[in-house]
């Protein structure tokens, strides 16, 4: 590995000093055989780090006036080049794509002129080997219209490659020949998913579109089936026995995988809080088939009415799940906290527990808020102690500046027919917030332990907002009459953002300010170095509490257990940055899939409510119209063509549409009465129109 790194460094130095060179010249310069050097050169060309010219010379792309990047397609046919050098994006006209598709890594040539445009020269890596779409007949042959609107070319399917696909079917197709400026791509049907529009077919389409799987490979399933479903004496050795303590789980009513239980007792100084997490690492051994599959998936994916688990049910809902009344292996983080919320001491220990009850968020919240306690009598005293600790911890976290972005989330109720029955705004009750607070404390405690002991680790990091985005956010706030204080050198303390959230709390614009703030913040990610967590105002943070559904948590458990047993930690240092990046990418992919599914189900629900009138809030302003969110969290578009009382100009800086003649304004947070005009499920778009009567 090191030899390759050294050779690359010498190679790059040679090209920097001497310019473009052919294979023979490079071999002579580096004093290496051409046969030894050529494979490395080929790899670097495939990665876009080098370019092989028509004259057989190798050079940096920049030496030839070229740039590398990833294509971000648009449903109208054009695209953007997201440059790998971090420079501003370049526009790609539809006739300059030259066969490149959304997600492809390409070499492009910037075009002269004032506009930042480029033309694709070469596709370095394809992102779309298989795709999902609607099969349509065209004479004897057919074609597939991709579901991904960012891929704007149809895939020609010769009759011999159509299999059993019929007109109007949803299919999975493999591209066998990529297109060019003059030729359409071609492919063959791999799988017929069902008829377009049928719930099962649409579900499978989304699963395939995001390269997910609803089943496990046979060899992985066989390994899971061999996993014992009960404990023996060997399992219990060298573990802290906590089976006698009063611990229990609190989860959603439909939850089936219980990976965290909590316990509490009062002490002279305050409380002893136990957070007991399923010891998945005991069953999913490093290097096993189960481990390889969990690593490949990275996370469970949650759709309304369906879960695509990271681990097979034998583990996720079986031996690893902290079901009540049975012995389960855990990794416990036991923390002593004083009455000001200060952590006094902690212990992280392999343990065994027996959960005393399976409680539900809604029931616990209702009981703590003075409602019905039925079924909670035995746990109520502990719950009240937990409530007292939660208030102290929450107050302490609030004092240090942690952000509580209470952005509206959807709760989609599914019917037995696979169709959405209702869409509501999801509520975070007292019990939800309480458990969340305890998990945050455990995650911070474990991360601080890892930092103090220099463990090879996956931290959950959240960096400072981008200065340009922060500036835009400040301008947006000013347009609404708010001021973002405390900015220095393009940075801000979380307390300054927290002050804005508190200032707008309970006001009509609160939701939209939270949404725009969320867009302003960086995305949290996994990283081997501890960079802190901006949003939580935390110096140390990781994910420790959900190893059944997140691979980073499983990795963290392995490191902690290796440290506890005094085993070597070096194996966990290898490739740690790659593991972190892969887990971050998998998380983003899962979130995108979940959003797409929510959008699809919302569209299917709203198809039954065309003509509905409701008062919504403007949550997006663009050059092509207004995005309005309805009370049930469904977002739709009022196209600019529907604003026919004036010619409206988009003020990008202030998120405004401004009428040229009458100076009428449409802005974020504004309340509008709208009517559902139509729904396009394939594009996942709800079309709205303004009603004549508007809120005053």
Detailed description of the structure:
By secondary structure, this protein is an alpha+beta fold. The chain folds into 5 domains: 2-60, Winged helix-like DNA-binding domain superfamily/Winged helix DNA-binding domain (Arc Repressor Mutant, subunit A, Orthogonal Bundle); 66-125, OB fold (Dihydrolipoamide Acetyltransferase, E2P), CATH 2.40.50; 130-209, OB fold (Dihydrolipoamide Acetyltransferase, E2P) (Beta Barrel); 218-459 and 538-594, no CATH class; 610-690, Nucleic acid-binding proteins (OB fold (Dihydrolipoamide Acetyltransferase, E2P)), CATH 2.40.50.140. Helices cover 30% and strands 27% of the residues. The chain has 16 helices and 34 strands. A 5-stranded antiparallel beta sheet has the order 6-5-4-7-8, with no helix packed on it. Strand 5 (79-83) and strand 6 form a beta hairpin. The longest helix has 31 residues, at 576-606. The protein is globular, with a radius of gyration of 28 Å.
Overall number of structural domains: 5
Report, as a whole number of angstroms, the end-to-end distance.
Answer: 68 Å
Biggest β-sheet description: 5 strands, antiparallel
Q: Specify the overall morphology.
A: globular
Query: What's the arrangement of strands in the largest beta sheet?
Result: 6-5-4-7-8
Q: Which structural class do the helices and strands define?
A: alpha+beta
């Amino acid at each position: 590995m090191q030899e390759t790194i050294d050779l690359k460094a010498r190679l790059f130095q040679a090209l920097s000093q001497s310019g473009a060179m052919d294979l023979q010249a490079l071999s002579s310069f580096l004093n290496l055989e051409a046969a030894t050097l050529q494979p490395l050169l080929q790899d670097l060309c495939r990665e876009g780090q080098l370019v092989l010219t028509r004259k057989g010379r190798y050079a940096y792309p920049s030496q030839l006036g070229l740039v590398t990047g990833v294509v971000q397609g648009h449903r109208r046919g054009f695209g953007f080049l997201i440059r790998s050098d971090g420079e501003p994006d370049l526009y790609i006209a539809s006739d300059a794509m030259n066969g490149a598709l959304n997600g492809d890594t390409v070499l492009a040539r910037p075009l002269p002129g004032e506009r930042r445009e480029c033309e694709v020269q070469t596709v370095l890596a394809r992102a779309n080997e298989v795709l999902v779409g609607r099969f349509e007949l065209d004479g004897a042959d057919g074609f597939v219209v991709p579901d991904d609107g960012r891929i704007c070319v149809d895939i020609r399917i010769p009759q011999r490659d159509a299999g059993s696909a019929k007109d109007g079917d949803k299919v999975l197709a493999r591209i066998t020949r990529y297109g060019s400026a003059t030729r359409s791509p071609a492919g063959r049907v791999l799988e017929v998913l069902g008829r377009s529009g049928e719930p099962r077919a649409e579900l499978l389409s989304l699963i395939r579109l995001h390269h997910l799987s609803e089943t496990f490979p046979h060899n992985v399933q066989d390994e899971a089936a061999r996993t014992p479903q009960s404990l023996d004496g060997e399992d219990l050795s060298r573990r802290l026995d906590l089976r006698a303590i009063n611990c229990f789980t609190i989860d959603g009513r439909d939850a089936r995988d219980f990976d965290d239980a909590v316990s509490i007792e009062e002490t002279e100084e305050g409380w002893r809080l136990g957070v007991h997490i399923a010891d998945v690492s005991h069953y999913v051994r490093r290097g096993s088939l189960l481990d390889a599959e969990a690593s490949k998936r990275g996370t469970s994916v949650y759709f309304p009415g369906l879960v695509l688990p990271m681990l097979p049910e034998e583990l996720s809902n079986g031996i690893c799940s902290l079901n009540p009344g049975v012995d389960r292996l855990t990794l416990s983080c036991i923390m002593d906290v004083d009455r000001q919320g200060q952590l006094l001491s902690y212990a992280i220990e392999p343990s065994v527990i027996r959960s005393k009850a399976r409680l539900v968020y809604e029931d616990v919240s209702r009981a703590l808020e003075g409602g019905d306690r039925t079924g909670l009598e035995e746990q109520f005293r502990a719950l009240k102690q937990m409530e007292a600790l939660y208030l102290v911890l929450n107050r302490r976290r609030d004092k240090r500046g942690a952000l509580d972005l209470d952005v509206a989330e959807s709760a989609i109720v599914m019917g037995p027919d696979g169709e959405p029955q209702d869409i509501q705004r999801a509520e975070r009750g007292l019990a939800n917030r309480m458990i969340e607070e305890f998990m945050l404390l455990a995650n911070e405690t474990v991360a601080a332990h890892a930092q103090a002991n220099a463990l090879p680790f996956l931290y959950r990091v959240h960096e400072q907002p981008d200065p340009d985005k922060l500036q835009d956010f400040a301008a947006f706030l000013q347009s609404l009459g708010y001021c973002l204080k405390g900015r220095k050198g393009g940075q801000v303390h979380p307390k300054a953002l927290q002050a804005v959230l508190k200032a707008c709390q309970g006001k009509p614009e609160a939701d939209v300010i939270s949404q725009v703030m969320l867009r302003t913040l960086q995305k949290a990610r996994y990283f081997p170095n501890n960079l802190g967590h901006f949003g939580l105002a935390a110096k140390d943070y990781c994910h420790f509490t959900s190893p059944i559904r997140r691979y980073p948590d499983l990795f963290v458990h392995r490191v902690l257990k290796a440290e506890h047993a005094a085993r070597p930690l070096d194996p966990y240092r290898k490739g740690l940055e790659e593991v972190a990046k892969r887990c971050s990418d998998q998380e983003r992919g899962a979130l995108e899939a979940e959003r797409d599914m929510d959008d699809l189900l919302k569209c299917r629900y709203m198809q039954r409510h065309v003509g509905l009138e409701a008062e919504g809030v403007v949550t997006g302003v663009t050059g092509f119209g207004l995005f309005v969110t309805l009370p049930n969290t469904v977002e739709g578009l009022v196209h600019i063509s529907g604003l026919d009382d004036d010619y409206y100009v988009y003020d990008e800086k202030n998120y405004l549409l401004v009428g040229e003649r009458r100076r009428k304004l449409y802005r974020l947070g504004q309340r509008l009465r709208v009517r559902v005009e139509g729904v396009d499920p394939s594009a996942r778009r709800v079309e709205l129109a303004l009603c004549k009567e508007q809120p005053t």
